Every structure is written in structure tokens, then in C-alpha cells.
């Protein structure tokens, strides 16, 4: 029997340990770190050799969250038990303490957490108690005692003391879980309230969109419309800049006043000055009467200057005063005219680059760049393509008194195109397909890319290289184009080149063969736009016609480079498909290529058909072998 002095000393030590444990549990919000500190205090005060704290997770698994004496190569998060598994699982299931005098003789001991490999040399005893919170078992606390004299038969005081410590841990775990649940609840409520209070963007006439970036544009339109601030709308050609400008006017207090639009790129400088500022009678030849300019006509309303980046440097200086002071003089007049105009400008050019190169005045740039709205290109809002296509189909049907529809496979083909012309190109594509469709439904064979007549990828490639093609400004998105024609943004695989030539990009093969131009087991090559639609068979033909190769645009040349002059122009042959095939069957590819180009009058598309290659392969080979292309 222990003496009274020993009992008093033991009780005093337990009380001091309880005090230290309570201080540790209330010192930090990091639960795992706090539990490790508790085990360290137990080890210091009670000569405990090893300790484990297990907590039950949401999946009802008992997971080790804190340990003392765990091997360095073990991870606490990887050790878990199910109910009834091992000693800890038995304590979790029964909710009763457990004492194992000798772990080496215990059949339920599995040593999953490690650190007990010396049981043959020393006698280790285990004391485990459940961790309870509000009467529910939420975890298990275990400690190990090592004795050289064999197991001790007095574990009652250890169980009683560990039960008190486990109760303190249970209350702390409950508090942490309550705080975490309340925090998650508050975050959900905050998100719900913010979503309810978020202003609903009202639809804008003729603007069809559901993509997030276009919804943000419409929200910006609603925010800026009530004010008089100058707006600069930026975006590629065909994205709907004039439509957004009209929407800003219609949503503004000036909606009942005139909305005047001027395309600055369509008028020469002298005529543009007269159109914007007006002129007096007799100010120049042909000025037979006074003429009001657009600034004067739009007074009280909105003036939309489209393609403002294309005006000359001289005329840019003339705009400065009217934009700053809202006053001007007519051409040939001296009377100052005051005007109240809200100005909306639009451009598809990179104005910052133009200012840096001295092509656009910096002071004018700062006057028009007050509120900027960026319109995303159609390829960056692919979620709107199907909706826009259906809108244009319905519009064409309404204008022509038809019952028209478009099938799902055709929409999938349209969704894979690059659309360098953006919404305007999509509308034209739908209108072109609608004139070719039969039975009132637009299908894949009705699309231009199915007949290999779409040059979208060629235009898109040249625009991303920094060249202006046919009035389209270089792309501002900077999307790289794969030389093989595959678009990485669409997840199209790039195939390795074969025999020193870039291969043609094959069309993917979905389940529906008709959607990809597959007829009778024949898979057509991909169209120029990369939409994977091949040419459709001609009505009444037993076999589909071979695709017509598209000759790529010439590479953009620097301004200082002189055009190549052929030394001896070759005669232009007649455009007949049956050319004499006296092609050299042997010899290097360069000789065969030169023969084909001379035979076809240096037309790459015809040379490609002669050699059984694609136009892109011929273009690549010409550059590879440094063959000078003769131009006539």
C-alpha cells in the first residue's frame, strides 16, 4: 500500500499536470499543435514514454492527429482505424477505458502507428481512455508505460487521471468543431447574401450572351450609361462595338436625343473635317449652302466615332479642342459653336503601340481613354456561339419567311472554329449555310468548312503574326497558332511531321460520323478553320468529291523589302485538271517540287494536287528548300 506522503505527492503532481494541460488547451487555435503539447506535458510530468491522440473524422474513421514517440518516417495523417479495429478501435466502439498490462501478449495490438519495436526487451503497458464531448465519443487517448520489473497491477489512478485529461481534450475539440462549423455557416450565408444583392444585369437589345466575360461587359455598360463620360470601346473587328455603343446611348438619359455614328476610316481627311464640323457656304468649291456637322447634329445626344485609330495625325490635332472644350468652328467660318455631345469611340487597333510609334497623338489618347470597355473575341466566349448561331438562324428565317433550324452536329462544328471575323463572320456563315440547306435544317454538309471553302484559320494565323489582313487589325489577344494547324486552346493533338514535311491535320472522329464529314468509311481532311468538318458529297454523286486545297496568303513582308522579280516569267498554263504527268519519279524532293511549281505556273494549290500533297506541305517545303516563289 502506498504511504500517505506518496499519495499526497502523487495527487499534487496530478493537480499540477491538470493545470498545465488546461493552460495549453486554451493557448492556441491550432488543435493538432495543442494536442502535441498536451502529450509532451504528460510525458514530462508522469514519465509517460509514448502517447497517442486519435479523433473521429466525418467518415467515422479514427485518425491519429497527435503523437509523441512516433517514428520519423511515419505520418500521422496516414494512420487510421475503423470502429472495433485494434485496441483504439475497441475503445471507440465501446466507449470504455482499456488497460493492457503487457502489449507483447495482447492479440488486438497491431502496432500500426509504430514506435513499439522493443517489446521483447522491455515490458510495455498501455492505458487508453475515450475522449468524450457532450456524451459522445469523439476520440481516444492512449499512453504507454515501460517497466523493467514487469507490469504493475495498479492502473486505477492512471485511468482516473487520463479520463480527466480526455474530458478537457473533448471540450476543446467540441469548441473547435463548433467554431469551424459556425465559420462555414457564416461563409455560406455571406456568399448567399452577396449573390442575392448582386445586381442582375438587364439584357441589352440584340446582344445575345451568357458567357461570364460578356456579362461583365453588359454590367459595365449599365454602370457607365447614366454618365456623360467619354467611352472607348476596344475589340477586334466584328465583336459588336457599334452595338455596345448604341446600348450605352439607349440606357443613358440622352436616349431620346440623336445617336450619330461616323466611320472615320471610310472618309478622307478633308471630307471627314467637313462631316464632323460642318462648313460655311462658299468655303470651298461645291459648298453652295451652310452644312451642319455631326458634332452640331448630335448636340444633346451621342456621337459615335468608329475606327478612330485610323484618322490622320493632322486631323487628330483638330479633334483635341472639341473633345476638351466642347466647341468648334465650321470649315470656312469664324463663329464658335458650343455643343453638348457625349462621345463614344471605338477601335480595333492597339492604341498604346500606335502612341509609342508616333502614329497616334498621346494627348488625344488620354482624352478619349476615360472609360474603356474591352469586348472579348468570339473564340474567348465559346459558350455564346451556339446561342448566337440559333439567334442568326431565327433572324434569317424571320426575314425570309421560312421555318429554319440547325442541328446539334453543326453547332459542334461551329464551336470548334477560330472565328477571326468574330460575330460578323458567324452571322455570314449562318446566312451562307441557310441558303444551301435542304428540308429546313442546317446540317454539317451545308457549312462552308465542309466544302473546304473556309479560310478562317489562314486569316487567324496571319493576324496573330502581327499582320493586318483585308482591313482586319492584328489580333490583340496574342493567341499562338500551331504551325501544324492544330489549336492548343481547343485540345487538338499535334501530330509529328512525316518525312520532313508537316502533316495535314486529320479530323477527329466522334461517334457521329456525319458530323465530321465521314461518308462510307472515308474520313476527310480538316478544313482550314480547324473545325474538323470535311467536304460533303455532291447531291447525286456516288462518291464524295476530293477537297479543294486552299492557297495560303503570302507571308507579310517588311515595308523596306523589295518585291521579288522573276528572272524569266514562266507562261501561265490553262486551268485544267489533266496536266501531263511527266513528273520525275526519282531524285530529291526539291527537284520534284520545282518541276510541279513550274508546271502549274507557281500556283501552290495546283502543285499540291500534282504531287499528292496538301497546300500547307508545299508551302512548308518551299520555305525549307529556300525556293524563291515567282510572282507574275
UniProtKB/TrEMBL annotation:
Q: Which InterPro entries match?
A: AAA+_ATPase, AAA_lid_NorR, GAF, GAF-like_dom_sf, HTH_Fis, Nif-specific_regulatory_prot, P-loop_NTPase, Sigma_54_int
Recorded GO molecular functions are:
ATP binding; DNA-binding transcription factor activity; sequence-specific DNA binding
Top-level taxon of origin: Bacteria
Q: Which residues form the Sigma-54 factor interaction domain?
A: 207-435
Q: Which UniProt keywords apply?
A: Activator, ATP-binding, DNA-binding, Nitrogen fixation, Nucleotide-binding, Transcription, Transcription regulation, Two-component regulatory system
Q: Which GO terms describe its biological process?
A: nitrogen fixation; phosphorelay signal transduction system
Q: How does it assemble?
A: Interacts with sigma-54.
What's this protein's name? Nif-specific regulatory protein
Q: Which organism is it from?
A: Azospirillum lipoferum (strain 4B)
